[in-house]
């Protein structure tokens, strides 16, 4: 039986509090490094784009139309590296810490 390997990059990042634009730039740089190092999946901390915050009404994004998630999808495509992390999202009148896994093939 052939043995397969999977290369992970575990990202330990300083998260800029409640600042998705800055955190997405950190993610972009990390994606580039992970791809250059041969990673197939990069694992970011929870709520990478904002950090844990109690200001949910100000920072939570609708999951399906999340600008942050759209940017992350583009990075996955650009660098060909899958990603795991989570976002603070709003669905209806409720808030969630929603984990996501996105592959370069577009599977979520």
Please characterize this protein's 3D structure.
Strands 1, 2, 3, 4 and 5 form a 5-stranded mixed β-sheet that branches. With 108 residues, this protein is of the alpha/beta class. The N and C termini lie far apart (29 Å). Helix 3 (67-79) links the parallel strand 3 (61-62) and strand 4 (82-91). The chain has 3 helices and 5 strands. The model has no long low-confidence stretch (mean pLDDT 95).
Overview in brief:
With 108 residues, this protein is of the alpha/beta class.
Q: What is the beta-strand fraction? A: 25-35%
Helix content: 25-40%
N-to-C series of helices and strands: EHEHEHEE
**Distance N to C terminus:** 29 Å
Question: Could you give the count of β-strands?
Answer: 5
User: Helical stretch count?
Assistant: 3
From the helix content, strand content and strand pairing, which structural class follows?
Answer: alpha/beta
Shape assignment: globular
The residue ranges in which pLDDT falls below 50 over 5 or more consecutive positions are none
Average pLDDT reading:
95
Major β-sheet, in short?
5 strands, mixed
Radius of gyration: 14 Å
Write the layout of secondary structure elements.
Elements: E1 8-10, H1 20-36, E2 41-43, H2 56-59, E3 61-62, H3 67-79, E4 82-91, E5 94-102
Parallel strand pairs: 1-2, 2-4, 3-4
Antiparallel strand pairs: 4-5
Helix pairs in contact: 1-3
């Amino acid at each position: 039986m052939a043995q397969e390997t999977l290369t992970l990059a575990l990202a330990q990042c300083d998260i800029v509090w409640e600042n998705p634009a800055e955190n997405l730039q950190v993610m972009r740089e990390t994606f580039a490094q992970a791809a250059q190092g041969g990673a197939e999946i990069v694992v970011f901390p929870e709520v990478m784009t904002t950090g844990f915050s109690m200001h949910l009404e100000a920072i939570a994004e609708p999951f399906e139309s999340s600008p942050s998630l759209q940017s992350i999808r583009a990075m996955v495509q650009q660098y060909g590296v899958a990603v795991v992390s989570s976002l603070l999202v709003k669905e209806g009148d409720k808030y969630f810490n929603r984990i996501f896994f996105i592959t370069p093939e577009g599977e979520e």
